Amino acid sequence: DVKVTQSSRYLVKRTGEKVFLECVQDMDHENMFWYRQDPGLGLRLIYFSYDVKMKEKGDIPEGYSVSREKKERFSLILESASTNQTSMYLCASSLTGNSNQPQHFGDGTRLSIL
Amino acid sequence: AQSVTQLDSQVPVFEEAPVELRCNYSSSVSVYLFWYVQYPNQGLQLLLKYLSGSTLVKGINGFEAEFNKSQTSFHLRKPSVHISDTAEYFCAVSSNFGNEKLTFGTGTRLTIIP
What we know:
- The structure holds 2 protein chains of 2 kinds.
- Chain A is mainly beta.
- Helix content of chain A is 0%, strand content 53%.
- Chain A has strands at residues 4-6, 10-13, 19-25, 31-38, 42-49, 56-57, 64-70, 73-78, 87-94, 104-105, 109-113.
- Chain B is 0% helix and 53% strand.
- Chain B is built from no helices and 12 strands.
- In chain B, the strands form 3 sheets. In chain B, strands 2, 5, 6, 10, 11 and 12 form a 6-stranded mixed sheet that branches. In chain B, strands 3-9-8-7 form a 4-stranded antiparallel sheet, with no helix packed on it.
- The relative contact order of chain B is 0.34.
């Protein structure tokens, strides 16, 4: 079974801090994704990566950046956290970039910015 | 570009009653369709997917969905629900074209009434 592990389940940070969210997958998947989930808005794609050191903007990349130095690890970075970035963040991976591949999700990080 | 509409944000159902969760999509090209389930405090799990072939797709936990191209729908059904089905359900679509990303609906919260 694919395992996608997010480093923290809950995180509390202050406005203006630089925040790192880490995600690791153990099945040699090519693609990795970061979403944020908000009530009534569903999941919105922030960034995705289809290879090491490659990244693509999703639908809401503003205020975020990502890093993929190794195939199994995909980091989401909030450069200067703001209260409107309080949300649930979900990491996912898929075997290949083909759009018929299902995505496998981590359990999420609930981030609060005070 | 594609889009997904889940008209029902909340669906309460009595235990052992049938349920249908509605999903409509919009796309100018052929699509792949997915249903994901999110149990409380967890990430998303794949429930079932439609890629091609038979329009009736069976998934885990007794769920099934029917792809209707003329009505651009992919409704999820279960003939008899259990308390353990309490969760949020997300419909998602990707286009049958290369490396297109998934687009999620806003989710339907299914509450089972004992």
